[in-house]
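One thing: could you explain this record?
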Amino acid sequence: MKVDPRAALIVGISAVSTASILIRLSSSPPLVIAGYRMLFSSMIMGLLGANGIDDLRRINGKEILLLLISGASLGAHFGTWTASLFYTSIAASTVIVDSSPIFVVMISWIFLREKINMREAFGIAISILGAIIIALGHAELKMNLYGDFLALLGAIFLAIYLVIGRSLRRKLGLAPYTFSVYGVAAAVLLSSAFISGNSLAVSPKELLIFVLLALGPSCLGHNSYNYALKYMKASVVSASILGEPVGASLLGALLLGEVPSMSTIIGGGVVIIGVYLTVFGRNE
């Protein structure tokens, strides 16, 4: 049965927007939250894509190394972004982390020698301006600035994951690829949590939050985007992801009473415009 791709995008944005709320409801350390989220996501994708696991036997040594780097980068993304939500606002965190397309373009330019056109360059400049506006608004709140920095690291690590994923996805189906990288990410995060002295024993309530993070934002949300990509332009799908900061901010205000500051609203809007320009510039 074919689902309207526009409906799939709405479902995807709605599901992903709940991630920051669920994380805020958890009382576990960030590495534990992110680690269990990835563990359950890997298990779910492994069950859904059991028939495609044979794809993993066809990759060579270099591709295995790239798979490990991709998974580690994804783990670093979720670890830093999850932590950012404990130091800065939901609005600032989601806007900054969703600026990853900017870093995809920059990494591709530096390491893959892919040219940057004028529209992309303009979009990058606009996004940097927006980030500066957010930072200036948080200048007197060192804790918020630290959270903004963690979200920025999350955007960079996500971009690395996406760039590496381009080549790996040519050989691997969606389910075996996500099963693998989610599994690597979980191993990196949970081992880091254990080494850091965090207990991996959690309550049933916490486990429920982690399962919901895996089912909603990770599996339903991101796979809705992947479904829509089959029927819609990549630029449209990529730009629609920018609906997450809006959705997350609205949920934060309604459920947690967290109203974004004026600098976050203005700066966030500027960042979203910049990322939008970059995404469409990349797909010209």
About this structure: The longest helix spans residues 142-168. Residues 5-282 form one domain. The chain has a mean pLDDT of 88. The radius of gyration is 18 Å.
